[in-house]
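User: Hey, quick favor. My workstation is busy. Could you predict this chain's structure for me?
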Amino acid sequence: MGKLTLHMNTMLDGVASIERLGNNMVMNAELSEYLVRNLEGKDYILLGSKTAEELIPYWAKVAANTGDPYHALGKLITDTPKIVFSNHLRNSKWDNTTLENGDITEKINALKVKNDLLVYGGISFVRSLIGHGLVDEYIILVQPAAGGGGDNIFTEIKDALPLQFKESKVFPGGLVSLNYTNK
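Assistant: No problem, here it is.
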């Protein structure tokens, strides 16, 4: 049985709206290597449609530029098959990408039978996954900033969500990765 790992950027106050960070988002070589290690061996990247609209073209450009310091990460993201969950898109405009809609629990559980999955977002998609109890592991990248209001990924849980600490890592620039699994 595979697992679904959530990989999400948030700010210190839990706000997951990266747009509010502007140019203050921490990214460096050490973090890029960490992101590569977390994605290696995953069978699929899962995305909501809004995140796919930005993430797929951005990392395709990085992958195409061998001089980009994040080329290895861009290439791995681009080469890993992606599944975009959307209720409004009917055709995929991206290479190496398929679209899914319908019962999210049924689709994810069917994928998890034989596959390891990594989710990059977006917020409403992630909320739905958490709310349906589909996430097995949480890798939360806490950016060194506070949003001062905005979207939080844990608003769909009905009761406390007990988690087991797995590891943490501090990166240059003050970003902290917190890794938890379900108890």
